[in-house]
Amino acid sequence: GAVVSQHPSRVICKSGTSVKIECRSLDFQATTMFWYRQFPKQSLMLMATSNEGSKATYEQGVEKDKFLINHASLTLSTLTVTSAHPEDSSFYICSAHRGDTEAFFGQGTRLTVV
Amino acid sequence: KQEVTQIPAALSVPEGENLVLNCSFTDSAIYNLQWFRQDPGKGLTSLLLIQSSQREQTSGRLNASLDKSSGRSTLYIAASQPGDSATYLCAPPSGGSNYKLTFGKGTLLTVNP
Question: pLDDT of B45-88, one tens digit each?
């Protein structure tokens, strides 16, 4: 199957610093990627749609200045959590669609802000 | 707004049992529906994708059905194994998009040896 790779899998950072998470589609091109967030024992919530070559589209309630998204190529999208605070600690996961429909997800990134 | 409910929330069965996981969704104007499994602390693994024109899709011991009109999908797992233990998620798209997936809380399956 198609592979989406996400890095890092775990990161611990100090409050006030920024953290970058990478999402790569390894064997197909993705003009659109998606970023989700998952709190413990909760469902995945869509944060934003990453569009290659243009601005990301954010879901209601998601701060675009807090969660910076860059989709500079057809295989790479990055999510930067800026000025991270403990409440930003969560599981972040990206996805990309091959063709028109099937979605493939990365391995996820566990962010802990201390 | 698409809302997804999965029943049961948790299920524990002995190895070898056949089981059914249920998913219901509120917006039936969907093009497809995808089933995933998630292992603890891990990402999602795609299991099956059902197109709106299909009623069933099979992969190995897994069979998923889709009834758009009633807003329901089921995942049937035959001859369950301990390795099937995971959280199972169904994800219909929402907002008229093929791509924006909506997730419920999933069904936590435990298969006991």
Answer: 999 999 888 889 999 999 999 999 999 999 999 999 999 999 99
Query: What sign has the CA pseudo-torsion B60, B14, B83, B64?
Result: positive
pLDDT digits (tens, 9 = 90+) for A48-96: 999 888 899 999 999 999 999 999 899 999 999 999 999 999 999 999 9
In angstroms, the CA A38 to CA B30 distance is: 24
Q: With an 8 Å Cβ cutoff, is A27 touching chain B? A: no
Q: Are B7 and B67 in contact (CB under 8 A)?
A: no
Proportion of chain A above pLDDT 70, given as a percent = 97
- The DSSP secondary-structure symbol of B41 reads T
Rounded distance between C-alpha atoms, residue A65 and residue A37, angstroms: 16
The partner residues of B93 in beta bridges, in order of sequence, read B101
d(CA B88, CA B37): 4
With contacts defined as CB-CB under 8 Å, which chain B residues touch A103? 34, 46, 91, 99, 101
CB B68 within 8 A of CB B31: no
Tokens of B6: 């999965």
Q: How far apart are the first and last CA of chain B?
A: 40
Whether residue B45 and residue A34 make contact (CB cut-off 8 A), yes or no, is no
- Among the listed residues B5, B9, B48, the one whose alpha carbon sits nearest the alpha carbon of residue B25: B5
CA distance B68 to chain A (A): 17
